[in-house]
């Protein structure tokens, strides 16, 4: 179970960073490499597919981690990030403009990635402090 949490934390961090890179770098990459325009990486479609991957991954990893370390701030960070990402799609470029959509997306991706990074570190700290041998724990705490 702990391995699944670690893998999903890393996956969610990677997906959040991919989303941020997509928002910031895609226009530049398309300008420099026009042949990539043929890939039809529609802005809205990409965000919807990323959300379809990020939402369940984040919920799974953050709740598993919270069960281990009992720090709910990671859930709060994740929820803020996921809400920002959903709002960026729901409001769209038509309502909040291109800058607003990118800002909301980057803000959401940053919150999600930060939540998962903290979750990952807290889970590793819990894992290091756990010991299978009760005698070893008594020796290290003396």
Structure notes:
By secondary structure, the chain is mostly helical. It has one domain (2-141). Helices cover 87% and strands 0% of the residues. The protein contains four helices and no strands. Helix 1 packs antiparallel against helix 2 and helix 2 crosses helix 3 (73-129). The two termini are 31 Å apart.
Key terms:
single chain, mainly alpha, 0% strand
Task: Please summarize what this structure is.
The chain is mainly alpha-helical. The chain has helices at 2-32, 43-69, 73-129, 134-141. The chain is elongated.
Global structural class: mainly alpha
Helix content: over 70%
Give helix and strand order, one letter per element, not per position. HHHH
Shape: elongated
The Cα radius of gyration reads 19 Å
Largest sheet: none
Give the overall average pLDDT: 77
Distance between the termini: 31 Å
Strand content is: under 5%
Helix count, DSSP H or I runs of 4 or more residues: 4
**Which runs of at least 5 residues are low in confidence (pLDDT < 50)?**
131-142
Using DSSP, what is the number of strands?
0
Number of domains: 1
Spell out the blueprint of helices and strands:
Blueprint: H1 2-32, H2 43-69, H3 73-129, H4 134-141
Helix pairs in contact: 1-2, 1-3, 2-3
